[in-house]
Amino acid sequence: MTRSKIILAGAAAVILVAAVAVKWFFFPSIKDAYFAMNQNSLRQVPAGLVAVRPTKFSNSPRKGTLWASVKVSGKDVWRMMGRNVSFKELMAQAYGQPQNRVMLPVGAPTNNFDFLVTERGDLREVLQTAVRKKPGYTAKMETHDEDVLALKVRDASLPGLTVSDASTRQNVHFDKGKLYFTHMRLQEITGGLEQAVKTPVVDKTDLTNFYDFSVVWDQQMQRQMRDDAAATAAMKKILNGWGIELEPDNDQVEMLVVKSASL
After folding, report:
1. Does 35 lie in the same domain as 13?
2. pLDDT digits (tens, 9 = 90+) for 4-63
3. For 96, left (φ over 0), alpha (ψ -120 to 50), or beta?
4. Domain range spanning residue 241?
């Protein structure tokens, strides 16, 4: 064998070993145990992992998403995971949008996924990159005409809202079965309402004041929030008590439009 062939063979061997090392160190096997729906378990998962895969827990009732933080050099470093979540929820988590603001394309995956991000940095951006590679989708925000629920004034006296003192600090706290909201504009609660009613919510009250108000948050209410129909009815009842109502409407809203990364 000539000297040049020996050099080339050696270089090839080095490249092969390096490739194996990269695969071993940067793409280790993802254990099913990493997807326990438990914050303490998520904190114990090795750092530097990124995974998106078809779920291995399709028959398990334990599903959803989870965030946890670990201390690194005295600072909180966040990590995230999802277990047996729909493709819509995967995209919603990757781009930080509620599921009801996600528009899927024709032919989008109908199976569920597991995902895991323990790599340092912007977790959502890391997950976006992983989803773009496999299953091969990306997304961006666009304005669309959509059916929405509009917040409107039902009773001009607003019996459940108290105009907040200008010197009051914004706060949310729980006490004796109630959530107390202090110094809030109604526009600031539309996101929470969307999560409850699973429909885009827009504020059409024209109210600009800061308000103090409260919501009963006992075990019965928490059970209702886990059922879509019950949650919608409960939120409408709460709003009516404030002098506000939700009405079907149509408006231009920002939607997360998902498309194939190959387009």
Report:
1. no
2. 444 444 444 433 333 333 333 334 478 999 999 999 999 999 999 999 999 999 999 999
3. left
4. 145-253
